[in-house]
Amino acid sequence: xxxxxxxxxxxxxxxCRVRHxxxxxxxxxxxxxxxxxETIDISLVDDIPRVLDVLTAIKENFSIGRVFAAQEFLxxxxxxxxxxxxxxxxGIPITFELHDEFKKRVPDAIGLIRTGDTTQYSNLILExx
Length: 129
Known about the structure:
The protein is of the alpha/beta class. The protein has helices spanning 9-16, 51-59, 72-76, 79-88, 99-105, and strands at 23-27, 38-41, 64-70, 94-97, 111-114, 124-128.
C-alpha cells in the first residue's frame, strides 16, 4: 500500500507510461473532452483540485523538460495568479502560445488529467525530459 506521493492509482498508471518527450495534459474543468485520449477526471467541485495542485504533486516524481500554456492565460489572469504559475515552474521553461495552437498539441498527449480549476486558460501540457 502506498503511504505517500500520488495515491490515485489511475494517475500513477498514467505517469508510469509517460516516456522521454511524451506529453501529459493537466486541464481545467471546462477543457473539451478528447475521446481518443485517456482522461482521468479528478474534479470534485469548483477549484478542487486546481491545475497547480496537480502540477505540484506530479513534479515530485516526474521529470518535466518544458511546459506549454495558452498565451491568453497572461491576459485573463491577475499578476498574482501568473506569479503562482511561474513559481510552480521555477527553472522549467514555459512556452505561451495561442490557445488554438495549444489545443493542436493535445491529441499527441499520453493522457489528460481534468481538474476542477476555474482559472481562465489554466491548462498545461507537460513535456517529459
